[in-house]
What we know:
Largest sheet of chain B: 12 strands, mixed
Radius of gyration of chain A: 37 Å
Number of strands of chain B: 12
Structural class of chain B: alpha+beta
Structural class of chain A: mainly beta
Number of helices of chain A: 10
Strand order of the largest sheet of chain B: 7-8-9-10-11-1-2-3-4-5-6-12
Strand content of chain A: over 45%
Number of helices of chain B: 4
Order of helices and strands of chain B: HEEEHEEEEEEEEEHH
Helix content of chain B: 10-25%
Distance between the termini of chain B: 21 Å
Largest sheet of chain A: 38 strands, mixed
Oligomer: heterodimer
Amino acid sequence: MKPIRGIIGLLLVGVLIAPAGLAQTIKGTVRDSSGHPVPYASVNLRNRSQDAIIAYTRTDTGGAYVLRPPAGSAPGDLLVEARCIGFREQSKPVSALPAVIDFSLTVLASQLQSVVVHNNKPVLRSRGDTLNYKVSDFSTAQDRVIGDVIKRLPGISVNDDGTIYYNNRPISSVYIGGDNLLDDKYTIATTSIPQNIVDQIQVIDNHQPIKVLQRKVNSNDVAINLTMKRSGKLRVVGQESIGGGLPGNYDVDLNALLFKDEYKAINYLKGNNTGYDLQQELMSHNASANQQRLGTDPPATLLSLGTISTPDLARQRYLFDRSGMLSANNLINLKNDWQLRLNAWYLRDRQKQDFSQVTSIFLPGDTVRYSESQHNQIDPALLHTQFTVTLNSNKSYLNDVMLMDDNRWNKTSHLVTNGSPIDQTLRDDPLNLSNEFNWMRSVSSKNIIQAYSYFSRTVEPEHRAIGPSYNDSLFNHGDPYLQLIQTVDVPTWFTNNYISFKMPGEVMTKSFRAGFSRQSQMLTSELGSLQSNNSISTASDSSANNLSWKKQKVYAEAAFDIPGERLKATLTLPFTYQQLNYSDRGYGLDKGLTRYYFNPQLIGRYKTSPENYLTFQYRYFNQTGNVEDIYQGYILKDYRTLNANSADLTLRQNHLAALGFEYRKAIKLFFWSINLLYNHTNANNIASSVITNSFQRLVMLPFPNHIDSWTADGTISKYTFALRTTFDAEVKWQDTRSVQVQNGAFLPFNTTIGMLKLGAETKISKWLNFSYHISGTQTNSHSSAEAPTDKVDQLLQQLAIYYNPTSSLQFMLSGEHYYTHSRGNPDLNYMFSDARARYHFNKRNIDLQLDATNLFNVRNYKALYLTANTLTASSYTLPGRIVLLKLLFNL
Amino acid sequence: MKWILFSAVGLAIASLPATAQQPDHAQIAVHYKFSHLRDTTNRQPYRENMVLLVGDRSSVYKTNEGPAQQQSAAGADGRTRTDIHMRGTKVEYYQFPNEKNLVRKDWIPMTDFVISGALPPIDWHITRDTATFGGMHCQKATTHFRGRDYTAWFCPDLPLHIGPWKLNGLPGVIVDAHDSKNEVSFTFDGISRSESTVIQPPQNGVKTTDKEFSKLEETARKDPEAYSKLMSHNGASGPVMDIKPGSGPVINNPIELPEKK
């Protein structure tokens, strides 16, 4: 049926009988009872016999209307009605045509709801801010695991170490089907879960997993949740890959995953010797945030094998490994909101390192130079088990985590320094047992109370033996001896307990917390020489420690949180009363320090316009040192560094101020941002080093000093529609001023780093595209004294080309070029190249992949590093070319 | 003829400055089952539960997909659930019939966009057929709009000239509509009183035009990787083998068809 014909017909009729037609109108004005016109009122012409509307119109702003009845309408049959929300409807009969009919309507409250028959349809409720990405929209045929897809999502970026960021904010966790299986060790999930069983990737901003706190307490966390397809929930799935290659390499990844609603598991066995460091999968991506939550300050490892650091290359380029790991992660959902979880892993590895280095330290009037070459072997055996019990209901929340980490490091090193050979063995066995208890309950329908208790026991016995006859003049009165043995341990008991009360509100949420923490440690160390008759004599007086350390804190904190639309800000005001006692009878040391501290923090964000915002932060922080800043007896940290401290604690006050602005014009795909940061630290003592060709002695001296640093950072990126290319650039400038004491001289230092990065990524066509990135850094270090200024320039270029001739065949070729220039040294040029080819067998759903890394077989890498006044020239042995053939299939 | 009248009235009204008013609150909710045969090669149409929130002088048409995942996954009792948002479309249509304004809220990952335009005038032909929907007395009307012939049922007891999606202009709320081929349909699924939410397009949306938005949407679809890099404006990421962009749903039968003239 063509209504157009009907309309044209009517039009014709109307035109033909135009003069008569014009006369057949009904017009009038609709007013309210006080005489004001009612605009936009509905005026309908009804047919009495059928009670149907046959013509309709609306009043204009003056309340006037004109109705044209269809031809042939009998006036007696007609009714004009006026309806308007907020007024009682009225209808009047039509006596003759044309007619003038006015209405005077009486006011009546909106009747819409009374018209509707009461119906029980549920009303939608949604809070929070979730982005749902359908995996099929973002995945490509080459993606095998979900980590490959997550990298590509708008707003998401993934670091080299696997940390996932959303809008430059690190995510808290990766949830699987709503369950937290892995806490923040989510690399296990992103590298194991096959992408084809995941239905959606949800990015949940302001994520609040604790039901008691939902819709009451704002959270700034952002989390990712993977929702599984039905096919992924039914049976065990897995991405298996087995590879072998030359020269003598293996790469195995066997996993079994199950994602039912009541039971979830990720269990796998992996191993390789191609340079992929399995310890990356164990990495806790939110470690610093966790430490802040626990309030703990665990002691660091004190001893090491040498002073050479790892090269400034991707780890896979220099790591010689031979590893295997077994990991089990299992979760059970019980009735009534209870959940049990078990996570465990065991990793064994054998890593080899082959480095040599020449270090020059520029002192006024003198330059100290020493050389080292090291062949190291590091054998870790890492065991971790964690058991978690959770209750998460609307009224209360309970979470208890029992954890044990038993790691054993066995390191051996053959070192030649300034021509003399030294053999070392280092055993480091950190053991950590802890329990974290957290309980929350909602009271009086709005407020929330919380009780928290954390308890841990840590020991880390370290034992290093150097021999034979190492520096006997210093350590054994000139007589030969077997080994120089340094042992250290810092057994620690720690507990932190508090209760808190939260009062959520529409404009501001107030929280109050009070608690106490206690840290009790004993630093014991001994340096002895093992004689040929198997007796151990103390190497020197003042080389043993028996330092007892007790730190007690009582604290109260008030926090105010404004979760507004334009302005989001949090102000934290913690007050701490700290009592510290440390003593070491061997040195007649018995001191205490009692202080009140106030460490305010303000952090916030202000929206200047829908797409732009300003961020600001200010923080003032007091730090007292820890037990490792206070020991009096000498500890031989590495074979050439003897460390001892004065009896005074290092007290630091740190001011941090940051300001940033972010601009976005989404419609043009144009973004830029600027960030400024100022950091100022006051310290009451300074490390003084006495440096000779064979030794470095560090002592803390009570001279106040300060460190200032300014940083400015700008980024810009733009997509050009014409070239289908994204261009981005980053500029960074950092200036640090500090003071160092070396060989009795105070040397003020100024280090400036300037960095410029540019990049382009194109999509020329479906079967070919490339990406190019170039990054240049210039490091300048000079001191106001007579030491020379040194500059190191570095340039890194990366180019990758992707070629897909068919849907089953893919090629990739990439290259990296490193260039380093430093005055007075020859320029360094390095080129690394990788290639990959993959073929997909459609019928059996198997992939065959050929990987070749380091095509040019670069076996040696030299680098130059400049910090303050120390220039190190290092040389590393790299694994050469590796060609690997892999078979990939799904369970 | 009516069209001429409407546009004359419309011009008169449009030339007058709009007066600032109190925000409009929703009074009732009309539920629809929306169905659209997007891909003629695949006989399974796209379905979604939609709702039209009607206030005293404006309306908003948006998704009514409840938190389905939350419900179905809570089969066995007691588990940690994350607060999951709705699954349906993020596009919302705001009709302001007095101002003759249609505002569409649309979305490309990470950003809300607000696109303002004229409420398309539709010339309806009212028939004498009547029927009852949800206890409401309704009358039938037909029209040809954007390439399709629509049949709609409107309820004069709800005297607002609004309807689902872009359909408008009848002397009552349109509670049911479908096109002649049944490829696009808004099927009546109940009517109820509504929570008094404010009917207003989001304040923090980026205001733009239809043409600019279509251009951006096409880029995001054809080149999601470039778009995502820009939206996160991060630096370089390692070499990744991902050449083919992901394919979305095939729509070879859009709701608005070109007019065959």
